[in-house]
Amino acid sequence: MIASPAHPAHLVIGLVVWSVWFVVLYGGLSVACAVAPPAPSTGALTWINGVLLLLTLLVTGALLVQARHCLTAVRRSHDRPASGLMRFLPAVSGALYLASAVATLAVGLPVIMLPPCL
Predict the structure, then answer these.
(1) What is the pLDDT of residues 19-63, one digit of tens each?
(2) Maximum CA pair distance of the chain?
(3) How far apart are CA 107 and CA 95, in angstroms?
(4) Angle at the Cα of 94 (from 18 to 112), degrees rounded to 5?
(5) Cα(86)–Cα(96) distance, rounded to whole angstroms?
(6) Predicted pLDDT of residue 82
(7) Global confidence as pTM
(8) CA distance 105 to 44
(9) Are the CB atoms for 60 and 100 separated by under 8 Å?
(10) Exposure string for 55-89, b = 16+ CB within 10 A, e = fewer
(11) Residue 53 in contact with residue 111, Cβ under 8 Å?
(12) Rounded to whole angstroms, how far apart are CA atoms 108 and 96?
């Protein structure tokens, strides 16, 4: 974790984490289906979906922790004098972390209902 929530790297870290997760999710799904596809009759309750759901929840949790870190820094900056940039960067970064967390859940939660290797 980068120490200062006002660091400009926070503006892209959430989206980079989401994009890496996206590639790992679908790349891992493709490899798992090629190596050891489960029987279609098992439905969505397979080891592949379990691993993908766990990965989704871990990444979402990490993104939400970072969002909270940035947004509490914005709240704390109202108590003491700070420049506009020291408030703007954590606020936008927190919003981007939240958007990345929502996107992660939106893409990852269908593993609960859909069989993996269609």
Answers:
(1) 999 999 999 999 999 999 998 888 888 999 999 999 999 999 999
(2) 62
(3) 18
(4) 40
(5) 16
(6) 59
(7) 0.87
(8) 17
(9) no
(10) bbeebbebbbebbebbbebbeebeeeeeeeebbeb
(11) yes
(12) 18
